[in-house]
Write a structure and sequence with these properties.
Elements (H helix, E strand, L loop, with lengths): L14 H14 L8 H33 L4 H14 L1 H20 L3 H13 L8 H15 L6 H12 L2 H9 L4 H14 L1
């Protein structure tokens, strides 16, 4: 059987089992399969769509956890979020709130590698029409402004600037022909002067 065919009817007593199954489906998306990735994504979206009303927080947390834990699959997870957003528009907004809350927690806990991965994931969500370019540029402006503050340690300054620069390959094409191109060019100019 395919990985997505393991879903069975769930009773109230099997809630933990359902969580485990959903987590496993999300974790394994993109692994070698006889089906195409596109087909597997569509099937997973259908499964998650059926469960999202009762398991929304768990599903969204699992997506963030796996995007950070498996950065090689980050674009797969951002595509999955985009597809869920198409099916249920409010999901994208709720997911962004969760990401920003998680970002704050990771910064408070000084989990710098996870912060960078989460920012890259957020940036990749532009390509799936979940995040607006102007919103991401606003976040980047905040990072750059913080890095420019007097008294910021050089290591923190470098971290903040690198966090922005590492996202450029994921967002460059989007901004090359968008209404936000002028703002993006301004951001690039600032980064150039900050080297």
């Amino acid at each position: 059987k395919q990985w997505y065919q393991r879903r069975v009817a769930i009773t109230a007593g099997e809630d933990d089992d359902l969580n485990t199954r959903l987590e496993e489906l999300i974790k394994r998306i993109g692994e070698k399969s006889q089906e195409s990735l596109e087909t597997n994504l569509e099937r997973l979206v259908d499964i998650l769509d059926q469960e999202i009303t009762t398991k929304k927080e768990f599903i969204l947390n699992s997506l963030v956890k796996n995007a950070i834990g498996q950065p090689e699959k980050m674009t797969i997870y951002s595509t999955l979020v985009g597809l869920l957003n198409v099916k249920m528009f409010s999901t994208g907004g709720e997911f962004l709130v969760l990401i920003m809350e998680r970002l704050g927690t990771l910064i408070d806990d000084a989990e710098w590698r996870s912060v960078q991965l989460l920012i890259r994931f957020l940036a990749d969500l532009i390509n799936c029409n979940v995040v607006l370019g102007a919103s991401l540029l606003g976040l980047f402006d905040t990072f750059i402004a913080t890095a420019a503050q007097p008294g910021v340690k050089p290591s923190m300054r470098d971290f903040l600037l690198y966090s922005v620069m590492q996202c450029l390959p994921w967002i460059g094409l989007h901004f090359s022909d968008s209404k936000d191109q002028v703002e993006f060019d301004r951001l690039l100019d600032i980064l150039e002067t900050e080297k």
